Amino acid sequence: MKKKRYLIYVGLVLCLAALLISVYKPLISVGSNDSILKVKIFKVGRADAIVLNNCDEYIVIDAGEEEDGQEILRYLEKHGVDCISKLIITHFDKDHVGGADTLIESIQVDEIILPDYTGSVTDYFDFIQAMEDLKITPTYLNEPMKFSFGDCTVTVEPPSSYDIADGNKEIDNDLSLITTVEHFDNRFVFLGDAEKKRLRDWFANGSATSCDFVKLPHHGVYNTELETIVEMLNPKFVAMCTSSKNPADVQTIQLFKNSGAQVAETRDGDIIVTSDGKNIRMSQK
Q1: pLDDT of 193 over the 50 cut
Q2: What is the 3-state secondary structure (H, E, C) of the chain?
C-alpha cells in the first residue's frame, strides 16, 4: 500500500512538473543567449545592406550596391553561414538591389521576396538574369506575408498598389516593401526607402504601431511624414544608412533626438543592434 501511494505521489509530481514546464517554456528562452536577435547594418556608403540572425537563421534585407554583395558574403562566411532563409529586396534602386546577384550566385537562398514591379536600372536586370540562370522563382509580394524566423515573427508588407502615374519616373522608393520583426517584447521596423506617399499608405492600413527600433527610409532625408513616425511609432532606437558625403539631414536627426531616441548613422561605422527579447542595445564599430 505504501509503495502504491509513493508511486501515485511521484506520478502527481511529474505531471505537475510537466504542466509548469509547458506554461513557462515561452518565458525560459527570453534573455537566453540562444534567443538573441542580432541586426547588423553595414557601413557601405549611402546604401542599405542589412543582415539579421536569430537561432542560427539568417535574413538579408537589401544588398547595397554592386560591390557590397561581397562584403555581406564575407560577413556570412566569417560566421559559417551557408544558407540565407530569406532575401528581401525592398525596391529596385541600385543601392538596394546592386549586390543581390552576387549573393544568390554564391550562397543558397531559401526564398527571395520582391516587390511586384519592373525595375529600370542595370543592377536590377543583372539580378533578374542571375535568378533565371539559377532557375530561382522569387515571391512577388501583392499581399502582406508573415513567417517565423527563429524566435521571431516577421511581416513583410507591399504597397496597396503598384500603379504608376503617367510620366512619374522616380517611383521605386514609394513601392518599397516594409518589414516588421517581432522578437518577444521588442518590435523592429525596416522602412526601405519609403517616402511620403508610401508612408501615408502604410499609416492608413493600420500596421504602424509603437516599435522599439526603426531603420529610417531614404538615408535620413527629411520629409514631414517622419514626424508621423515619431507620433505613431515612437521608436527608442533609430538607424540611418548614410555616408560622410551624404549624411542625414540635420532636421531628421534633431527630430528623433528631441523625441528621446538614440540615433545612429552608418557613416560612423557598422550599426549593431541586439535584442534579448526584453532589452535592446545599439552600438557602432
Answers
A1: yes
A2: CHHHHHHHHHHHHHHHHHHHHHHHHHHHCCCCHHHCEEEEECCCCCCCEEEEEECCEEEEEEECCCCHHHHHHHHHHHCCCCEEEEEECCCCCHHHHCCHHHHHHHCEEEEEEEECCCCCCHHHHHHHHHHHHCCCCCEEECCCEEEEECCEEEEEECCCCCCCCCCCCCCCHHHCCEEEEEECCEEEEECCCCCHHHHHHHHHCCCCCCCCEEECCHHHCCCCHHHHHHHHCCCCEEEECCCCCCCCCHHHHHHHHHCCCEEEEHHHCCEEEEECCCCEEEEEC
User: What are 19-41's pLDDT values in tens digits?
Assistant: 444 444 444 445 556 799 999 99
Say what the pTM is. Answer: 0.88
Q: Would you say 68 and 60 are in contact if contact means Cβ atoms under 8 Å apart? A: no
244-284: pLDDT as tens digits: 999 999 999 999 999 999 999 999 999 999 999 999 999 99
Task: List all residues 6 or more positions away from 177 whose beta carbon is below 8 Å from its beta carbon.
Answer: 88, 89, 90, 91, 113, 114, 115, 141, 156, 157, 158, 192
| Of 66-75, 96-105, 156-165, 254-263, the least confident | 156-165
Q: Dihedral (C-alpha) 94, 99, 101, 106: value to the nearest 10 degrees?
A: 180
Per-residue model confidence (pLDDT) at position 166: 58
